[in-house]
Design brief:
Layout: E1 2-7, H1 12-21, E2 35-41, H2 45-54, E3 59-60, H3 64-69, E4 73-76, H4 84-93, E5 98-100, H5 108-121, E6 125-126, H6 135-143, E7 150-158, H7 165-180, E8 184-192, E9 200-207, E10 212-218, E11 225-231, E12 234-240, E13 247-248, E14 251-252, H8 256-268, H9 278-297
Parallel strand pairs: 1-2, 1-4, 2-3, 4-5, 5-6, 7-10
Antiparallel strand pairs: 7-11, 8-9, 9-10, 11-12, 13-14
Helix pairs in contact: 4-5, 5-9, 7-9
Length: 306
């Protein structure tokens, strides 16, 4: 059985992944995982204790190094992306398989450093938003070939006014990259009201194949994820269900945590080749940085140059 260790305890994903891996009486428990979350470390002792108790995690470690030493696989799971590189270095040093929760890092330079360290060490590492593997996303992708060549698409989702665009906004950036690829030539972004506490942001991404994709970050509105694709023969709109359970087309929506953890384990145990390239991991942070620069300087930005 694989022993999983968590670095970071301040993320709801600690609860969700523990429910799937550890809580045998939970509706979403994965009986065939051949894994268990056995240790956790976090900077806030009370939060860490609460998460360990909820997730039935046996050991609260005193240091990140202890988590790494006592685990077969490590998740860098803190909700603070500025800590991801620091925590990941403990894992890379011990050559353990590594999952870094989204976003991979806070800055482009940190993402480049982390990816370079992984390449040099040959550690098995992946990082992604689980929304890209939801049944809603899969259904959306499967319908794309029915509407001809895609000339325009939109991805809509929330972002955190307090923590900035990258915190939740990485979800829709990753959806775009997952579906359309990494060949974004330029990004131009606007916000309204400008610099307002409650604001919405629109980013226009030009692809080198001539298609246009817009990213709509909702800071003032309902919490929703929506995907739209327009082709020569039709249009598709898909909502990604993120709360509650709903039967749709014979499948259960709100399944991205289950599908995501299965994908993580398949990659980190060598059963599946990592479907997400380092280029795509980096491009997500580059696009987020390009949006921020476009907003501040009111210019079109090529994310590849960042």
């Amino acid at each position: 059985m694989y022993k999983i260790g968590f670095l970071g305890s301040d993320n709801s994903h600690v609860e969700r992944f523990s429910e799937i891996i550890n809580l045998t009486n939970h509706a979403k428990y994965w009986r065939g995982s051949n894994a268990r979350v056995t240790s956790i470390w976090g900077e806030d002792q009370k939060v860490t204790k609460d998460m360990a108790e909820y997730g039935n995690i046996e050991k609260i470690e005193s240091t990140p190094e202890e988590v790494v030493s006592n685990s077969d696989i490590v998740f860098v799971i803190t909700r603070r992306p500025e800590k991801h590189l620091e925590y990941a270095k403990y894992v890379i040093a011990k050559n353990k398989p590594l999952f870094v929760d989204k976003p991979i890092t806070q800055t482009v330079s940190e993402a480049k450093e982390l990816i370079q360290l992984v390449k040099q060490s040959n550690v098995c590492m992946t990082s992604f938003s689980t929304l890209r593997f939801s049944s809603d996303t899969v259904s959306h992708i499967n319908q794309l070939n029915t509407i001809g060549d895609i000339t325009y698409a939109n991805y809509l989702g929330p972002f955190s006014r307090e923590k900035g665009l990258l915190f939740y906004g990485i979800h829709i950036i990753e959806l775009m990259l997952h579906i359309h690829g990494v060949s974004v030539e330029s990004v131009y972004a606007i916000e309204h009201p400008q610099n307002g506490h409650k604001r919405n942001v629109q980013a226009i991404c030009r692809y080198n194949n001539g298609s246009l994709v817009s990213l709509t970050f909702i800071g003032d509105g309902t919490y929703k994820f929506q995907m739209t694709a327009l082709g020569s023969n039709g249009i598709i709109n898909t909502e990604i269900i993120t709360k509650g359970l709903m039967k749709r087309h014979g499948t259960t929506s709100y399944d991205f945590y289950q599908v995501g953890i299965e994908k993580i384990m398949s990659i980190l145990t060598g059963k599946e080749k990592n479907p997400i390239s380092f280029t795509q991991m980096l491009r997500g942070i580059q696009i987020a940085s390009a949006i921020q620069r476009s907003l501040s300087e009111k210019i079109e930005v090529n994310p590849i140059n960042l």
